[in-house]
């Protein structure tokens, strides 16, 4: 990945932001701009210059992962910004308003006396909206591991009477690793029967019984990039009402994907799917947004929500995940990561979305 080009795109924005340098502190953004993957790092960028700061644990790793950058290794818990900022002749430094604590901002003011500090929100995140080919390939690899895990566990005999939600969640995570994932993208959700009525249920010791729906929300992580998929299957006949709910959610997801086009307001995409569910009388049973961006973070921009004002850019990767949850009965969610292309939405997942009855 061309991290230098990414930094150049950021520095092109500095004058418009009213600054001559920019301090990046959010780790996903540092990684996006440098390739460095350690758990502590900051990046100072200016036109034609960039310095990465980290502590002694990562001296060798920083040299390996960010060899093209000047590197400052420090020990006292706060990056020594004074000399690099002075060397740049910086009089106004932007910093990530969403990436620092109040105490960190106070220390910046104490240490950089005479430098105007300008809080900036979501600047690097906007650069990250549009995925480049290497990013799309990593998301596809993560999705492939997710698809394999679903095939092996949900469709390959891993769901059997008496298995618990926790055991099924662990099996999905194990199979994602076995299929090449570095880790899971987030805490795996597995919900049986009435527990599927909770959108974000925490897996419990509840055993699987005949007639249960099984809702699985999970995803793999590959080289820093996430994916996110939800499938709902049935262990035995789930009954007519849940079958109708499943068909309704499937139609809503199709409507959401169909509405996904470059330049379309996020609220319109949400409304396309939500309208299907509301028209069927289940609007109150769909209590969350339609989806979110996916990449170096599992939840990132753009957010597909009712009150959103942003437009969907070509090259973004988002989830489309409508759901209907009925207390005491159960619930259904169908979710895919979808690339926004010039021609519309392209689902990356390959797992079946049909109601599989085991």
Structural summary, described in words:
The protein has 358 residues and is an alpha+beta fold. Helices cover 34% and strands 24% of the residues. The chain has helices at residues 3-11, 14-17, 27-34, 59-65, 82-88, 102-111, 123-128, 133-153, 165-178, 240-259, 266-279, and strands at residues 21-24, 42-46, 49-55, 70-74, 92-96, 116-120, 183-184, 189-192, 212-218, 220-222, 225-226, 229-235, 291-293, 300-304, 317-320, 323-326, 330-333, 336-341, 344-347. The strands form six sheets. The protein has a six-stranded mixed beta sheet, with helices on both faces. Helix 6 links the parallel strand 5 (92-96) and strand 6 (116-120). Helix 8 packs across helix 9 and helix 10 (240-259) packs antiparallel against helix 11 (266-279). It is elongated. The mean pLDDT is 96.
Main features:
358 residues; alpha+beta; elongated
List the helices and strands and how they pair.
Layout lengths: L2 H9 L2 H4 L3 E4 L2 H8 L7 E5 L2 E7 L3 H7 L4 E5 L7 H7 L3 E5 L5 H10 L4 E5 L2 H6 L4 H21 L11 H14 L4 E2 L4 E4 L19 E7 L1 E3 L2 E2 L2 E7 L4 H20 L6 H14 L11 E3 L6 E5 L12 E4 L2 E4 L3 E4 L2 E6 L2 E4 L11
Helix pairs in contact: 8-9, 10-11
Q: What is the helix/strand order? A: HHEHEEHEHEHEHHHEEEEEEHHEEEEEEE
Characterize the main sheet.
6 strands, mixed
Please tell me what the overall shape is: elongated
**Taking Cα atoms only, what radius of gyration do you get, to the nearest Å?**
23 Å
Give the N-to-C terminal Cα separation.
43 Å
Q: Give the integer mean of the pLDDT values.
A: 96
Q: What percent of the residues sit in helical stretches (DSSP H or I)?
A: 25-40%
């Amino acid at each position: 990945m061309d991290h230098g080009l990414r930094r150049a795109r950021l520095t092109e924005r500095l004058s418009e932001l009213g600054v001559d340098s920019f301090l990046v502190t959010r780790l996903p953004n540092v990684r996006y701009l440098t390739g460095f993957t350690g758990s502590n790092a900051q990046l100072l960028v200016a036109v034609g210059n960039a310095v990465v700061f980290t502590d002694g644990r990562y001296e060798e790793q920083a040299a390996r992962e960010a060899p093209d950058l000047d590197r400052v290794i420090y020990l006292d818990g706060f990056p020594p910004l004074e000399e690099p900022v002075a060397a740049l002749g910086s009089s106004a430094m932007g910093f990530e308003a969403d990436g620092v604590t109040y105490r960190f901002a106070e220390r910046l003011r104490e240490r950089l006396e005479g430098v105007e500090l300008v809080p900036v929100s979501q600047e690097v995140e906007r650069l990250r909206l549009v995925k480049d080919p290497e990013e799309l390939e990593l998301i596809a690899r993560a999705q492939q591991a997710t698809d394999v895990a679903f095939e092996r566990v949900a469709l390959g005999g891993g769901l059997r009477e008496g298995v618990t939600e926790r055991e099924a969640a662990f099996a999905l995570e194990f199979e994602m690793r076995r299929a090449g994932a570095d880790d899971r993208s987030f805490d795996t959700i597995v919900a049986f029967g009435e527990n599927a009525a909770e959108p974000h249920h925490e897996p419990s010791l509840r055993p699987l019984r005949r007639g249960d729906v099984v809702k699985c929300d999970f995803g793999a992580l590959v080289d820093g990039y996430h994916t996110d998929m939800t499938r709902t299957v049935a262990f035995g006949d789930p009954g007519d009402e849940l079958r109708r709910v499943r068909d309704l959610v499937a139609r809503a997801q199709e409507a959401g994907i169909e509405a996904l086009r470059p330049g379309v307001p996020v609220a319109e995409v949400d409304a396309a799917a939500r309208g299907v569910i509301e028209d069927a009388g289940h609007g109150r049973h769909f209590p969350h947004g339609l989806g979110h961006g996916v990449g170096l973070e599992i939840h990132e921009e753009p957010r597909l929500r009712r009150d959103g004002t942003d437009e969907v850019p070509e090259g973004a990767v988002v989830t489309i995940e409508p759901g209907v949850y009925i207390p005491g009965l159960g619930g259904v969610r169908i979710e895919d990561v979808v690339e926004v292309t010039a021609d519309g939405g392209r689902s990356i997942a390959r797992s079946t979305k049909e109601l599989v009855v085991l």
